[in-house]
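Agenda item 2: alpha-D-galactopyranose complex prediction
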Amino acid sequence: MTSTDLAAAFAHAFGAPPSSAGPVHVVRAPGRVNLIGEHIDYCGLPVFPMALRQSVRIAFQPRSERETRLVNRDSRFAPSAFVMSESIPPAPAGDWGNYARAAARALAERFPDLRGVDALVDSDLPIAAGLSSSSALVVAMALALMHANGVTVPSLELMELLGRGERYVGTAGGGMDQAIILGARAGCASRIDFHPLRLTPTAVPADWQFLVAWSLVPAEKSGAARQAYNERTHECDEARRLVAMRLGQRDDITYPALLAAASVEQLLELAGARATLSGVLSRRFRHVVTEGTRVRQAEAAMAAQDLAAFGQLLDASHQSLRDDYEVSHPELDRLVELAREAGAAGARLTGAGFGGSIVGLCRAERAPEVRDALRDRFYAPRGAAGDVERYLFRAEPSAGAEVLTPGASPG
Ligand code: GLA
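Presented output:
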């Protein structure tokens, strides 16, 4: 659907607005695929994602009141409304409108007098697929509210504000998603460093192709997966504290500082000792520390256009997430295995896991073979071959979120 079509659909959803409300604008916020650096952003360690072509788009118009009204083009999501304030009460857990509320509440901290918008939400991003459709909604909503109110926040600050703001929904997430959704550069993956936040792009080689394949298992950000996610963040923190104490460091030292204070080998030896960590904490710690190393190596492999090396790092990351971090799922493992058998240089689960998608890398000319194999060997036996392009697609490194030129005036 073009921006003009979306603006027309807006008129249909909300009726012709008063002419004083001005033109309908459209904001676009892409989904993301994390290439490597999984479950370490909340440890303050660098990650390496890129933005997708698929996005959440919102057609919006300012209102004179403080109420925001939301309509979703996907009829599974009922209309929702809230009044702008610093203490917007959440809708019941799992309600899609909470992501819009999260954006509004975060902005209200800085701008207490914001007025609301009418917003029509449209998305071609698969939902609960580990591709950040929810953070894309948060970012799109924030940009719509800012634009409608004529306020701005410097980009890095906005990434941090919305990263914290999304915790409103109850997930103790890191800051990767909001940062890449706002800061991605077309044609590039970006290393994201935290504290201080910084994005460093690397061009994706023209003959590399990243494929995303959904496992058909929803990775819901609410419910059991959220609990397991939050549990991992606590385990990492506890492991860090205990290793730091054994090393004679302050117990509030960060992961990056810990890695500066001792070599990876030393840290792993210490963490492997029963006197330091339990079996579970030791495995969680090993994932974090080795995944951090893989991010640097992967960034260098991409810069050197070394596809085989990047592929091996993807494989090692998956193994670590499956065995040490225990966030995989048998359907994700199966997809990874099939992608490799079909000629991918490497593959891994992407996003929080527990379902969701994998990302695989291959030379562009091999991509059709890999796709065909996944269609025939994964999707067809599960009765999903008909819709395969919705589940299995090329990840095109795209630009970050933006307000597009005004759509047509409705009415
Ligand atoms: C979710 C969170 C991110 C990150 C990933 C795992 O997508 O929103 O901050 O922690 O999981 O890497």
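Discussion summary: Residues 34, 38-39, 41-42, 173-174, 176-177, 351-352 surround alpha-D-galactopyranose (CB under 6 Å).
Owner for follow-up: CH.
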